């Protein structure tokens, strides 16, 4: 455990997981995975006739554990935690505002310090401004910060650098470049590196029945010997306390890598791919609605979740 609270940056690649293949050379994304602790975040099944905007909001609400309309604000649930989201999606903006996140646009962040005449905005400038929101500036961790955690939602046509192109390849390059710049600033052993908790989450977006066998997180034993499944305990991600979760989707989970120098564990993963995570990931599978609880602990805003 760190001797000071961490500050967290989470990059969410909405619907981009299916476009990552082992043959792709996303150097910085793979570098993050190879230095991080990797695993899966399970989601519930989608309701029938769900629109794309509804899916985006529902899945992000899972990450915040805010699917229940009776939930309090994020700051009320997590010891005054100050949180922000950067997104262009109007539905997600509305939802996040209701649960207490400060909603921002990338142009608002860089307007003061960078000329908007240059478009797209350089990714290194975006990385610096994101870290400033967390109190990281000029290689130092300032005593005060504007936020404890910042979420950046990328995908569904959104851009981190002000462009509006819908091309998936550009989304992936944006994330890859952004991670490269952030990790360069937060180098191991640096003051920022020891305080920044960086998460990369990639989801599959809208799914079909064809995705089930290819991206299943069920164990080999339960797949090959269903008659013997009663001999093995239920996986923890299918439980909530002592109660079984009845609506667990066992395929197409979110992929997650979490990295903080000298704080997070390092597993045997080398590439940010489903296959590598399933074979070598150290975090296995946890429900997506437990993600924020786990990160909040590192921010000193929640008690320890899990082992």
What's the short version?
The chain contains eleven helices and twelve strands. By secondary structure, it is an alpha/beta fold.
Gross geometry: globular
Gross CATH architecture: 3-Layer(aba) Sandwich
Q: In the CATH scheme, what's the topology name?
A: Alkaline Phosphatase, subunit A
CATH superfamily: Alkaline Phosphatase, subunit A
Q: Please mark out the parts with pLDDT under 50 across 5 or more consecutive residues, or reply none.
A: 220-224
**CATH class call:** Alpha Beta
Describe this structure in words.
The chain is of the alpha/beta class. It has a single domain, classed as 3-Layer(aba) Sandwich (Alkaline Phosphatase, subunit A), CATH 3.40.720.10. Helices cover 30% and strands 20% of the residues. The protein has an 8-stranded mixed sheet with strand order 4-3-7-1-8-11-2-12, sandwiched between helices. α1 (27-35) crosses α7, α2 (52-64) runs parallel beside α4 (90-98) and α6 (123-133) packs across α7 (168-185). The longest helix is centred in the middle third of the chain and has 18 residues, at 168-185. The radius of gyration is 19 Å and the shape is globular. The model is unreliable at 220-224 (pLDDT under 50).
What keywords describe this structure?
alpha/beta; two-stranded antiparallel sheet; 307 residues; Alkaline Phosphatase, subunit A; eight-stranded mixed β-sheet
């Amino acid at each position: 455990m760190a001797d000071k609270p961490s500050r967290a940056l989470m990059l969410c690649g909405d619907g981009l997981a299916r476009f990552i293949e082992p043959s792709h050379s996303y150097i910085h994304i793979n570098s993050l995975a190879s230095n991080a602790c990797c695993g899966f975040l399970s989601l519930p099944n989608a309701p029938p006739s769900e629109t794309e905007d509804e899916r985006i909001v529902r899945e992000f609400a899972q990450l915040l554990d805010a699917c229940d309309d009776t939930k309090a604000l994020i700051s009320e649930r997590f010891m005054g935690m100050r949180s922000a989201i950067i997104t262009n999606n109007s539905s997600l903006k509305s939802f996040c505002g209701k649960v207490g996140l400060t909603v921002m646009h990338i142009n608002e962040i860089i307007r003061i310090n960078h000329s908007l005449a240059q478009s797209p905005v350089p990714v290194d400038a975006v990385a610096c401004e994101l870290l400033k929101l967390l109190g990281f500036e000029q290689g130092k961790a300032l005593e005060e910060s504007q936020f404890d955690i910042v979420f950046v939602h990328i995908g569904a046509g959104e851009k981190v650098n002000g462009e509006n192109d819908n091309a998936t390849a550009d989304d992936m390059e944006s994330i890859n470049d952004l991670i490269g710049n952030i990790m360069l600033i937060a180098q191991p052993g640096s003051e920022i590196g020891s305080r920044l908790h960086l998460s990369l989450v990639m989801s599959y977006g809208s799914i079909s029945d064809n995705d089930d066998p290819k991206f299943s997180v069920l164990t080999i034993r339960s797949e090959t010997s269903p008659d013997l499944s009663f001999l093995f305990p239920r996986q923890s991600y299918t439980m909530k306390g002592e109660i079984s979760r009845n609506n667990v989707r066992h395929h197409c989970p979110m992929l997650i890598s979490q990295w903080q120098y000298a704080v997070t564990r390092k597993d045997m993963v080398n590439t940010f791919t489903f296959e590598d995570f399933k074979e070598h990931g150290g975090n296995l599978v946890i429900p997506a609605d437990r993600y924020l609880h786990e990160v909040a602990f590192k921010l000193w805003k929640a008690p320890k979740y899990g082992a």
